Amino acid sequence: MSAIKVSAYRWVPPFAQGLVRDLRVRWALEEAGLPYEQRLLDFRDKPEGYRKLQPFGQVPTFEDGALVLFESGAIVQHIAERSTALLAADPSARARTMSWMFAALNTVEPPVMFLVQIDLKFADDAAAMRMREGAVDAVKGRLEGVAAWLGERDYLEDRFTAGDLLMVTVLRFLRHTDLVVSIPALAAYVSRCEARPAFQKALAAQMATFADNAPASAA
C-alpha cells in the first residue's frame, strides 16, 4: 500500500469528467514516479471530519504520513519540490517555473473559470449571458499572452515543468469552446502535454474511477 493518499470523487457528471482538480495531483505524482492511493468521496456528501483535512470540503487533499495538504496548486508544488522531473535543480530555473505556476492559477484560471461558470451554470440566465462577451474577451487576452510567449517553444520554459502541468489543466477547462483550438500554438501545446505518458495514466485512472462508480441513471 502506498503512503500517499489523494482524495477524489467517485463520480461526477460528464461535463466535469477529466477536469476535476485531483487530475493535477495524479499527473504530478505520475511524472514524479510516486505511487498513491485514492480516497474516494461522494461529491454531494463528504464524510464527517473531512473539513478537518480540507476546510472548504473540496478535492483533492494529499496525505503523506502526518503531512496533510489541500489546494491542488500547493500540492503540485510540494510534489514538484521532490522531483527534478517537474522542477529543475537550478535556482533560477526553479524560480521561473514557480512564476508560471502562479500565472496559471492566478492570472489565467480566474477569467477562464468565470466563463465556464457562465456557460455551464448560467446558460439560461439572460443577465449572465450579457456578461459573456466581456468574459470571452478577457479569456482571449490571457490566451494570447500565453501563445505569444510560447511562440515556437514546445513548453513555457526550455522543458516540461510543473508550470506546464498547471497551465494545461487550466486550458483544458475551455474544452467546451473553440478558444484554445482556434490558436494553433496553444492547441499544439495542449496536445503535446496531453500526449505525455504520465498525463495519459493520470487521466485514465480518474476516468476509470468515474466509470466504475457511475450511477445507474447515468449508464
Would you write up a description of this structure?
The protein is globular, with a radius of gyration of 18 Å. It has a 4-stranded mixed sheet with strand order 2-1-3-4, with helices on one face. It is 51% helix and 9% strand. The protein folds into 2 domains: 4-85 and 198-218, Glutaredoxin (3-Layer(aba) Sandwich); 91-196, Glutathione S-transferase Yfyf (Class Pi), Chain A, domain 2, CATH 1.20.1050. By secondary structure, it is of the alpha+beta class. It has helices at residues 22-32, 72-80, 91-121, 126-130, 132-150, 162-171, 184-194, 197-212; strands spanning 4-9, 37-41, 61-64, 67-70.
What keyword list fits this structure?
Glutaredoxin; globular; 219 residues; alpha+beta; 4 strands; Glutathione S-transferase Yfyf (Class Pi), Chain A, domain 2
User: Helix- and strand-based class?
Assistant: alpha+beta
Number of strands: 4
Q: How much beta, percentage-wise?
A: 5-15%
CATH architecture assignment name of the largest domain: Up-down Bundle
Order of helices and strands: EHEEEHHHHHHH
Low-confidence stretches: none
The largest sheet is: 4 strands, mixed
Overall outline = globular
Q: How many domains?
A: 2
Oligomeric state: single chain
Strand arrangement within the widest β-sheet reads 2-1-3-4
Mean pLDDT: 96
CATH topology assignment of the largest domain: Glutathione S-transferase Yfyf (Class Pi), Chain A, domain 2
- What's the number of helices? 8
Q: What CATH first level of the largest domain would be assigned?
A: Mainly Alpha
Helix content: 40-55%
Distance between the termini: 31 Å
Radius of gyration: 18 Å
